[in-house]
Amino acid sequence: MHVSRRRLLYGSAGIAATTLAGCGLGEGSEELTGFTGIAMPTTTSDRWVSEGAELEDRLKGFGYKTILAYGEDDVEQQTEQIQSMVDEGVEFLIVGAIDNTSLGPVLANAKNAGITVIAYDRLILETPDVDYYASFDNYEVGVLQARHIIDRLGLEERSGPFNVELFSGALDDNNSQYFFMGGLDTLESYLYSGAVAVPSGQTEQVPTATARWDREVARERMAELLDEHYGERRLHAVLSPYDGISRGVVEALADAGYEPGSDDFPVVTGQDAEPLSLKAIQEGTGQSETVFKDTRQLAEVAANMVKSIVDGGTPDVNDLGSYDNGFKFVPAYLLPPIDVTVENYVEEVVDSGYVSQGTIDDAPEDD
After folding, report:
1. How do residues 103-155 score in pLDDT, each as one tens digit?
2. At 82, phi and psi to the nearest 5?
3. Is 304 contained in some domain?
4. Cα–Cα dist 77/56, whole Å
């Protein structure tokens, strides 16, 4: 079942980096100016703030006019922002969707106006009006997180059983299912052998979901799991898809008596290389892993998609068969994620210039 799930995700196109023809959207491109609307989901996550700025900088560097707006996790507000961009006459839309199924009508308006739509990191579903998708290999994110748990618990050498709980992201974010499937598929053989147990029994995406990727929602769910299933048991690991969720999980564990930094503190994964989580990884005080997605590269991919069309060509994509949005397989360019731990965070995140060591050291606590 899970093998076919992987095949369904990646299809026959695979993820090899090759240059493939786009959708022929370059016709008449000599008249395009590159005017681009950038609709980002929220300012509550560091990554979206930096990515919005990076996209603007790159597009303005090409000489293009831009409009940048943040929806602040309000679907109606993001829809209104996108419609305003359409009304302003943008030629391109780069959209990091809040809700992946709610933008069909406004994107139909965009398409009627001749606008090229690029789904940014989050695939937009249930509409034919998405032209391209720029993201990371999201299935591989879950694989990396699960492999960290396997390695830290020594599952290749030890029979267990080890108690693990699973968290997934927002159900209205299409990426959540890929993260979750990658992790669950990687842990599958250990679940079957009994080396890994999930005492809550919650091994499907819906019960493990975290609305809006919210730290407090994750903290409350982790506290409930500990109260209901861990009276005499010890939790050994938590598969968490995102740093904010991870920090909520760590807070609940600490409240329940687990001591961050101790040898028997549960393994907690994460994603996005946020400074506060990197600080915890550096100090060994809770979360021990994050998946780094160099969003500067993602912004470069999306901006270059715009430039390719303005220049009369078609964007480079490397995947045609993985991302079915309900109407079609959306041509995609996928970047590789990087597993980050205390052993390599300096090399991968600091030395690359993504975030400074000072920013990590001075990262403020969550509100």
Report:
1. 999 999 999 999 999 999 999 999 999 999 999 999 999 999 999 999 999 99
2. -65, -40
3. yes
4. 20
Residue pLDDT, tens place only, 320-352 = 998 999 999 999 999 999 999 999 999 999 999
Whole-prediction pTM: 0.84
Give dist(CA 286, CA 316) in Å, integer: 40
- What is the span of the domain harbouring residue 82? 9-136+294-335
Same-domain status, 189 and 230: yes
Pair 63, 184 in one domain = no
Supply the DSSP symbol for 329. B
Domain count, the chain: 2
SS3 category, 87 = helix
Q: What is the DSSP string of 183-246?
A: HHHHHHHHHHHTSEE-TT---SHHHH--GGG-HHHHHHHHHHHHHHH-SS----EEE-SSHHHH
For 171-197, the pLDDT digits (tens) are 988 899 999 999 999 999 999 999 999
CA distance 266 to 344: 20
Please, is 364 exposed, middle or buried when counting C-beta atoms within 10 Å of its C-beta (0-12, 13-18, 19+)?
exposed
Token pair of 2, please?
């899970």
Name the helix (H) or strand (E) containing 95: strand 92-95
Strands across the sheet containing 196-197: 196-197, 162-166, 237-239, 267-268
- Cα–Cα distance for residue pair 297/299, rounded to 1 Å: 5
